[in-house]
Amino acid sequence: MDSRRKELGEFIQVLRHRSQPADFGFASGSRRRTAGLRREEMAQLIGISPTWYTWIEQGREVNVSAEVLDRLARSLRLNRSERAYVFEMADRRDPQASQPEDDDAAPIYSTLLPEIGVPAYLMGRYWDILDWNAAAADLFSGWLDQPHDANAPPPNMLRFVFLRAETREFLVDWETRARRITAEFRADCRARLDEPALLRLVSELSAGSTDFARFWKQHDVLERQGGERRFQHPKRGLITCQQTTLRPVEQEHIKLVMLRPLSKR
C-alpha cells in the first residue's frame, strides 16, 4: 500500500474522530459507539458516497480529486498546516494555494532588520523590496538609498535587474545572474502564474527588456539558493558577499535575504 495514501487515510480518520457531531448539525447521543463523526456523516459533508469515503480512509488505490479535498478542508475547518498536509499526502495541488496573500511582512521582521549587521532586506511574493536596513541601502547605492514615496509602488528586484541600465555594471557577470534570477522567480511563483498582478509584471518586464522576455520564454526553473554574489559598487569597488535567504514559517511568501561580505582574498 502506498505510504502516502495510508498516511492520508489515517490522518482523515483522526480528523473524523476528533470532530464533534453537533458542530456539523448531526445529533449526538449515547447510541454512538465511538467519538466523533461516522463515516457516513463525513461522506455527506464532503459530498461523496460512503463507500468511496471508506476506501479513501482505508488507503486504497483511489484518486481523490482536489475538489473533494477542498470540500473536506472547508467542512472540517482545517487550519493552514492541516490543509497543506492533506493536499501533500494526496499529491494534489491546492486550488486555494494560488490565492493572493497579503504582501505586508509582519512588523517583527522589519524591527529585526536594523539588528542585522550585514546588508539585509525583505522581499515579497512578486519580489518587491518591502523593507531593508542601512547596510543594504549602502550596498545598493543609487537605488535603495534614494528617497521613496510612500504612495508609490515599492522597489522591485526584477525591475532593478532588467530595467535599469546601471545594474548591468553593478552585478558582476550580469547575464548569468539575470538568467538565474528569472529562473528562480519562475520557480518561486509557480503557484501564482495566473495571477493578474504577476501577469502585469511579466508583461511590463518583457516589454521593457528583450533579455527578460528571452529568459522567461526559456521556462528555466531553479530553486532560490545561496552562494557567492559579486557587486561592482560605484564607490567601494568590487564587493563579494555570501547570500542567504530565509522564509518565515507563518509567511512563506516573504523572503529575508542577507548578504554577508566576504573578506578580500
TrEMBL record:
SMART domains linked to this entry: HTH_XRE (SM00530)
UniProt-listed Pfam families: HTH_31, MLTR_LBD
HTH cro/C1-type domain span: 11-83
Protein's name according to its UniProt entry: Helix-turn-helix transcriptional regulator
